[in-house]
């Protein structure tokens, strides 16, 4: 008989085994130990055991759902008005028994007991309190369509699509980079600098990128030292067994307002790729929201190809509530 209960301190080994046996597709990392979950989940200052509900058959954990909250727009704290179902997983041997549906119902109850006005399913930028570096690739960007079970499952539960994110990949072993006259001009005028961390780290940075060996790259003007564009690169070591290569994630690209739409974003990505290639890395991944045509063009122009799509879902009865996306 399946029992449901909250997370307890002795559960991490069972959760790790469930995750590794869960068959969630390319978006799920395969960490070699349960320590990865400590860094991204249990060790977070806002981790609430009540938000992590487990389905248990005897002593075996056979299902889980994890709910949390979005970050405020300035990434300074949690926004408890916006609830997020970060993961729902049932072991393949126990599927089609209603376990997943019951887990989601319990996650919704947990969130509804908080002051939430909207419940979303699928972590994404600004909506990702947990699983950074463990699901989605370079970052959580909704539930990926490469996991064929996710979309029909949430649709059946009455959730509707809220936003989509493109997942883009570039093979770093191929030494050819896009080249235009504008890129060549920008390359002569600028230089790439690698920094240890963000120049203005906020609360979100410390709870996400700050827990990884992320490097910040900055494209600067040679003559003035002015910062034109920045991006963070984080190793994806927990994906080495899943993807069978050494990959990195490229996240949070920023281009100064005065330089947008002039090729600097594309040049930054190309220069970062060249730098990563020297480190014998094999693959780089970057995500871009489908509601940002400029971001999609920049990523494609830098030689990245779309390989997947992440979808954030909204609980049907909350779909009319106002919400400003964090992407």
Describe this structure in words.
The protein has 327 residues and is α+β, with helices and mostly antiparallel strands. It has 2 domains: 2-164 and 310-318, Gcn5-related N-acetyltransferase (GNAT) (Aminopeptidase, 3-Layer(aba) Sandwich); 169-308, Gcn5-related N-acetyltransferase (GNAT) (Aminopeptidase). The chain is built from 9 helices and 13 strands. The protein has helices at 12-20, 35-42, 99-112, 150-156, 181-189, 203-207, 240-243, 264-278, 293-301, and strands at 2-6, 52-57, 60-71, 78-90, 118-121, 143-144, 159-171, 190-195, 215-221, 227-235, 247-255, 283-289, 305-315. Strands 1, 2, 3, 4, 5, 6, 7, 8, 9, 10, 11, 12 and 13 form a 13-stranded mixed beta sheet that branches. The N and C termini lie far apart (41 Å). 43% of the residues are buried.
Briefly characterize the structure.
This protein is an alpha+beta fold and 327 residues long.
Labels describing this entry:
327 residues, alpha+beta, Aminopeptidase, 2 domains, 13 strands, elongated
Tally of extended strands?
A: 13
Overall 3D form: elongated
CATH class of the largest domain: Alpha Beta
SSE class: alpha+beta
Please give the alpha-carbon distance between the first and last residues: 41 Å
Q: What is the percent of helical residues? A: 10-25%
**What's the order of the H and E elements?**
EHHEEEHEEHEHEHEEHEHEHE
Number of helices: 9
Arithmetic mean of pLDDT: 95
Query: Under CATH, the topology of the largest domain is which?
Result: Aminopeptidase
Strand content: 25-35%
What is the CATH architecture assignment of the largest domain?
3-Layer(aba) Sandwich
Please give the largest β-sheet.
13 strands, mixed
User: Over the alpha carbons, how many angstroms does the gyration radius reach?
Assistant: 20 Å
Low-pLDDT runs of 5+ residues are none
């Amino acid at each position: 008989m399946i029992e449901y209960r909250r997370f307890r301190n002795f559960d991490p080994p069972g959760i790790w085994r469930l995750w590794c046996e869960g068959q969630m597709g390319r978006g799920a990392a395969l960490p070699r130990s349960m320590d990865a979950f400590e860094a991204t989940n249990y060790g977070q200052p806002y981790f609430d055991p009540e938000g992590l509900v487990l389905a248990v058959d005897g002593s075996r954990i056979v299902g889980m759902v994890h709910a949390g909250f979005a970050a405020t727009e300035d990434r300074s704290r949690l926004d408890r008005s916006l609830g997020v179902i970060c993961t729902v997983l049932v072991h393949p041997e126990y599927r089609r028994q209603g376990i997943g549906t019951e887990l989601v119902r319990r996650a919704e109850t947990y969130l509804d007991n908080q002051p939430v006005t909207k419940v979303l399913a699928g972590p994404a930028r600004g909506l990702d309190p947990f699983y950074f570096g463990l699901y989605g690739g370079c970052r959580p960007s909704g539930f990926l369509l490469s996991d064929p079970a996710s979309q029909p499952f949430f649709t059946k539960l009455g959730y509707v699509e809220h936003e989509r994110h493109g997942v883009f990949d570039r093979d770093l072993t191929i030494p050819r980079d896009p080249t235009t006259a504008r890129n060549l001009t920008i390359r002569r005028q600028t230089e790439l600098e690698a920094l240890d961390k963000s120049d203005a780290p906020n609360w979100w940075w410390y709870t996400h990128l700050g827990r990884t060996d992320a490097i910040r790259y900055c494209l600067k003007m040679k003559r003035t030292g002015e910062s034109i564009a920045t991006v963070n690169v984080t190793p994806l070591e927990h994906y080495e067994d899943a993807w069978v290569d050494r990959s990195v994630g490229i996240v949070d690209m920023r281009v100064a307002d005065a330089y947008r739409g002039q090729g600097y974003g594309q040049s930054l990505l190309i220069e970062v790729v060249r730098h990563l290639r020297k480190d014998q890395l094999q693959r780089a991944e970057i995500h871009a929201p489908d509601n940002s045509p400029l971001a999609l063009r920049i990523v494609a122009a830098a030689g990245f190809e779309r390989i997947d799509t992440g979808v954030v879902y909204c609980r049907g009865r909350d779909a009319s509530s106002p919400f400003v996306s964090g992407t």
